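Order emerges. One example.
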Amino acid sequence: MKKLLMTLLFAAALVFGAVFTATPAYAQEEAPSGVVNADGSAAKTDDAPKGTSFLDVILGGGIVGFILWMALFGSGAFAAYFIIDGYILVRPKKIMPQSLIDEVKEAMDQGDVMKAIEICDADPSSMAKILKAGFSHVEEGFDVIDEAISAAGDLEVEHMMQRLNWIQICSSLAPMLGLLGTVQGMILTFASIALQGVEISSLSLTISQALYTTAGGLCIAIPSITFFCILRNNANRLVLRMQVVTSDLIKNLRHVEVVEG
């Protein structure tokens, strides 16, 4: 799992870097000036298109474009945070530690429900909360126990998915912010054409700058939605496994009596 996480993060970094550090080809070539030397050769010119650095792209859209870029970077940062948080959260050792299962199973084999409750109180995992909900209703019959466990299980699953859903929110928000930045850039471009008139080379440059935000949004959204699907599938597998283990642990409650002493 750790190797997969590092591989995907590295791939996302490569894609993001390739998009935003690449210099357009026309920025490296001499711009035709239409000026020739006395011998008929083309004269060198310093009129190559300017504003091709990434900083120029960020600042080229004005205050609104800058704010959109900051929102885009924030979306990427939040996505990375929730992805790391998801990998920390969706782990068997955190959701259903084997030590808890073994201790509760031993207590149930001895018929000591109070000891099982104490074990669950000392463990902060989701499975401990689910088991404690069932053990707390042991005197009310197995049907009530089963309902309490199901309700607690649904609550823990919902809590887990709420945290994972933030990744999906970031993956949906990033391309929309990128598209908004592109639209804003295109509006400025066509306004400049209407008011001042723009040469083809300058027009191409401003349009390419406007498209950078869309590329940035996609570079955030694609890895984010990939990680979300992986984490969601891992969470579903853990939930199914937890349900099986929980059913096995509480089956003995059909015949257990609580003894307080």
Residues 53-254 form one domain. The chain is about 75% helix and 0% strand. Confidence is low (pLDDT under 50) at residues 14-49.
